[in-house]
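hiii, so i know i said id send this last week but things got crazy w the move. better late than never?? heres the sequnce for the chain we talked about at the cafe, plus the structure i predicted for it. fair warning i was half asleep when i ran it
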Amino acid sequence: MAKEKKNDEYKVQYSEPVGMLAAQSVGEPGTQMILRSFHFAGIESAIATSGLPRIVELVDAKKKPSTPLSTIYLEGKAAKDLDEAEKVAKKISEVKMNTLIRRTAENFSKGTIKFMLNRQELESQQMTPRQVADKLGKLMKLDSSVEEYTIIVSMHTKNLKDIRSTRVRITRSVISGVEGAGKAIVQRDKNAGDFYIISAGSNIAGIIEIDGVDKTRIYTNDVFAMYGLFGIEAARNVLARELKLTLDEQKISVDYRHLLLIADAMTASGSIKGVGRHGLSGEKSSVFARAAYEETVKHLINAAAFGEVDPMRGVTENILVGKQIPVGTGSVKLAIKKEDMAKIKPK
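okay and structure toks below
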């Protein structure tokens, strides 16, 4: 009986405007998040985007989050042994050439580029100048030589544009680790005692290829990365989870079903669509509903030019023209039979 009573509390009345309630439930606390972001500006965490900017990122379906983070769980010996976990983290951690360079010098008359390497940074990455030069040779098919902590690349050309563009490509190249994985740091689960890795990147497709990574539990806050690897259902779950985490951080309580409804609407087509004019709002079947949001003139002119007809079945379009909306009590239609009408006696 207790279970049935609890289920009754979660039932929704027929024709209840759940979309409007979900929008209001997230939109109203969003105004509070704006105020709070000013109040806590001095102590805002620099680790990951939070608060209203993160909500905007999610509902606008931005391709790349401003601060991607991945949680990488380990399996086998790496989950229990710190040294093994550090080895996995080293294989994942992205090291770009520009982090190893102290200074560069281009010699256009000789067609060479010199890269003076940072000795301390090399030692921290446990790499030698020869290893860096060999990696560059494999990546870009370049002739190079090493003099102590300096790598000299011979271009075999004196063309200024070619030398400059090659220098830029070299400085941006990934010397070790997984490209797009960012810096990886080993953490320890306080409850289970197992080691796991946090990385400042979202290339989980490359990370799961590393030995020691638990492929079944890898997670990133990048919705599109999860979508690309695990499919639309995973993207839907990540959307709802990230919305909930962001609101929880701000101590804002919103029913999880509202967030699930937003995530469902954004992923129902099989791809991820934002809620704005380039997504859900701009693709509504109703002309007036599209025009009521943004780019009013464009939608009305296009509708007139192509002879579109608006069936007036939604909420927005009926409010726009002053009609009763077809939800809640407005969805109820009453009728009376003629024979019953005749039985009514006038007073």
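btw Residues 70-92+181-220 form one domain. thought thatd interest u
miss u guys!!
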